Amino acid sequence: MSQRMHGGEAVPRRKSAVGLAVLSSLALTIGVTGTAAAAPAQHESRGHANYVALGDSYTSGPLIPRQVDADCARSDHNYPSITADERHVDLFTDVSCGGATTAQMWQAQGSNGPQLDAVRHDTDLVTLQIGGNDIGFGSIIATCAGLSATDLAGNPCERHYRADGYDQLSLKILQTAPKVARVLRAVHAKAPHARVIVVGYPDLLPDDGTGCYPTVPFAAKDFPYLRDTEKRLNLMLRTVALLNRAEYVDTYKATVGHDMCKAPADRWIEPLSPASPAAPAHPNAKGMQAMAQALVQTLKRGGGHR
To answer: What's the chain's average pLDDT?
Structure first.
């Protein structure tokens, strides 16, 4: 009998090319060994018996019905749940939790135990989406929204984060890389035969760099800055996956054109005042469906770098 696990409690299962300079910089930052840089094992495109989902609120799906864990704001219509249904997983354990950082892979978060505790020797599929809170997604949004009124046509947020002569957000992304790498090494150690997939973040802002104040209250020239910051985060995640025997799912490309500046009927990411059940600046149910399809397509293709 197939089962679904949310935070350890069983319930019935409902169903751009990477630049050499960037690679070199990240490799030095991460401290990759020859083993860690080896290619991931090849996997047949088959069903998985034991799937564990790790991640933050972009995985858990806050406010999306039906919420099954109030402490972690976890929905049973998030992309791991949709994927588990479509792939007919026998045992599905979702320990993703809103607000999680890489530290919560080893540390309890309220009633949610250390997320890595869910990974077992017989786990054969692990997805990981983490890093956004390590660089401070929430504080970045609050800071940029707060500064926008000082120069609506300019880039006050970018100037703030570059005030010391370097981009603080780029540095935070580089500092997060070894943390994500450590998580991946721990997953491989606990589940040596698992297919491990890093899931990137969806497209939050217009990919063409245009703005939509006041729907999203950022200054005009901060939109491309914040877009590029998210792209750098995703590039880091893709690179760390490559260097640590994991695959990568690009949910950014899958959601372009459905960012939080779009009309309610067209957007898959809700703005700071959501019109659909979802947290601000997070995927709604349509966004979760799109992310799930990107993951399912990767699973269908079998193992290897994506």
So the answer is: 89
